[in-house]
Amino acid sequence: MAAPKKGRKAPSGQGKPGRTLAMLLIAMAALVGGMFWSGETTPRLGIDLAGGTTITLKAEPDAGKESAINPTNMNTAVGIIDRRVNGLGVSEAEVQTQGDRNIIVNIPKGTNSEQAQKQVGTTALLYFRPVLAVAAGAPTTPEPAKSGAPSTKPSATPSAKAGNGAPKATTPSGAPSASTQGRAVTDALKAPSPGPSAPAAKPSTVPSGKPGATPSAPPTPSPSDAALQKKFTELNCLVPAQRANVAKGTTDKDTIVACGENGAGQWEKYLLGPAEVDGKDVDSAAGVLDPQRGIWKVTMDFTSAGSKKFAAITGKLSQQQPPMNQFAIVLDNNVVSAPSVSSTLSGSAEITGNFTQQSAQDLGNILSYGALPLTFKTETVTTVSPALGGEQLKAGLLAGAIGLALVVIYLLAYYRGLSIVALLSLLVSGILTYTLMSLLGPAIGFALNLPAVCGAIVAIGITADSFIVYFERIRDEIREGRTLRPAVERAWPRARRTILVSDFVSFLAAAVLFIVTVGKVQGFAFTLGLTTVLDVVVVFFFTKPLMTLLARTKFFASGHPWSGLDPKRLGAKPPLRRTRRTSAPVDPKEA
After folding, report:
1. How far apart (Å, rounded) are the C-alpha atoms in residues 105 and 113?
2. Spatial distance between the Cα atoms of 378 and 374, rounded to a whole number of angstroms
3. Local confidence band at 88 (pLDDT 50, 70, 90 cut-offs)
4. Could you give the C-alpha distances from 11 to 4, 325, 467, 491, in angstroms and in order?
5. 200 φ, ψ to 5°?
């Protein structure tokens, strides 16, 4: 019995094209579904297309302190500037680093660009101020204080003593009620300030009595005290615009009203005395893990002058009752922390409390930023009106449509039936590009600007070039006399090498351009690199498998004149056939 013949091995690369196409379509469906699920169904538009202001800031260190420009300090500056921009009531503003010393601030339309430029370009102001009163962040209507009634101080949960005499970073959880808040503020304004440089905790324009002096009768609040009390009671820290402007126009010598978030994420308002220590007095600060207690804390080291100032203020604060035994760490008139003090501190201190690793490191970075020798110079400010942005977007889309139409006309005229493969591949590439651009907006902050649109237009030619390379390789095989199915498989390895080399060069150029440039040019480079990668994906997982399946159809395999693979039109050679040579028989008579 004869053994069955083994089947012929499929040509290299033929595999299972249907399975490959199915995998790609499933991946596409998942990406499109994720786009609709996230709600980001359109790409985010850049300032030049949507309208708004773009500000480029460049970090400049003090002389001899070039090392101050590092990723940690730049990220801290980004966080501070982001809080400033949000304080203007801006929604969807973007603040991000670019390169090693640039910060890009994108502010959408509807914001005063001059005010934004002023806010983001100034150096952060960090102060340590004594706390005089604390209340809930919402506005209240206090009752008038009755004659002879005892004063009611704001209540706060006393903090436990931290190890080594360090202050514990606990924000007071108690707040005065609506009936006592007005009297609490009045008492705070009348009370002697715990600080050494200001004998009374009230605006510097109002004279104060000597510390410890007991007046025979409560003094009548001055107009400045009344105005400050009114501002404190009416302040609503839940409104970003009020938080940003509450201390506008004040100096470090003034008593101010400020807002801050407590450990529970709730807004509280503070009445703060004149600044006793500023950010330049901090030598270094960091959020570290206490190995003995297993908690996160913030350590601070002061300069020689700062150590003396901090010792004086903490010595006074440690003798006060809550909340007047607290000092507020104020950055840009925003209270970032208000730890209590239980003893005199000098040289170094630590702040403990309900810190996570992230919150401890953030506070350490903020404290360090007050001592950083960094200033920011405004490099460029670009403002685009929404109307101009809309016109630029229309012009970019029109240019893309014209370029795509020319490519389609060329493919239809020259490749006929093969143009179906090219058009379907372009469609798949377009869907993937659009979906990824929409998803990358909220994921990494990608915004489609005009140079990015140009990169997408250039990508049409790059993608079409890959199809042309593969089609011409198939035609070359047919010209050599091969039928379509083996021609498709034999042409693929040669076309694959050419496509990979071409796309690698394009991707390398995009990567170099992205690294060495700043600003909007990076949008062009990013889009070009993204579409180049997608070109490889589409050609390998869609164009090649689809071509393998079409080669099995009669329309393409028979070389129909409209298939684009007609052997006669291509000038194909007749197939080479090997014939066995036989010698003529020899006549015995002639032998």
Report:
1. 11
2. 13
3. low
4. 21, 83, 21, 11
5. -135, 135
pLDDT higher than threshold 90 for residue 504? yes
Q: To 5 degrees, how large is the angle CA 382–CA 386–CA 387?
A: 115
Gap between the Cα atoms of 532 and 462, Å rounded: 7
Instruction: Find out whether 491 and 474 touch, Cβ atoms under 8 Å.
Output: yes
Q: Say whether pLDDT at 346 is over 60.
A: yes
CA torsion, ordered 548, 553, 557, 561, to nearest 10 deg = -120
Mean pLDDT (the chain) is 74
Query: Torsion angle of alpha carbons 323, 327, 329, 330, nearest 10°?
Result: 70
* pLDDT tens-place string over residues 57-82: 888 876 667 777 888 778 877 877 77
Q: Classify the C-alpha dihedral 482-487-493-496 as positive or negative.
A: positive
| Secondary structure letter of residue 448 according to DSSP | B
Kindly report, residue by residue over 14-33, the tens digit of the pLDDT: 568 889 999 999 999 999 99
In whole angstroms, how far apart are CA 228 and each of 82, 215, 256, 271, 325? 28, 22, 8, 9, 21
**590 or 297: which carries more pLDDT confidence?**
297
Which residues is 335 bridged to in the sheet?
A: 260, 330
Separation between Cα atoms, residue 402 and residue 428, nearest integer Å:
19
pLDDT category of residue 535 using cuts at 50, 70 and 90: very high
Relative to beta strand 327-331, strand 126-136 is antiparallel
Highest mean pLDDT among 128-132, 324-328, 499-503: 499-503
E-assigned strands of 353-453? Answer: 374-384
Strand 52-61 and strand 348-352: the pairing is: unpaired
pLDDT (0 to 100) of residue 265: 74
**Conformation bin of residue 148: beta by default, left when phi > 0, alpha when psi is -120 to 50:** left
Range of lowest pLDDT (151-160, 286-295, 432-441): 151-160
Tell me the C-alpha distance between 313 and 193, whole Å: 10
Report yes or no: 525 and 510 within 8 Å, Cβ to Cβ. yes
Question: In whole angstroms, how far apart are CA 187 and each of 190, 211, 221, 272, 321?
Answer: 5, 14, 10, 13, 13
- Rounded (5°) CA angle 488-493-497: 130
Q: Which of 444, 576, 357 is nearest to 43 (CA)?
A: 444
- Token pair recorded at residue 274: 């004149």
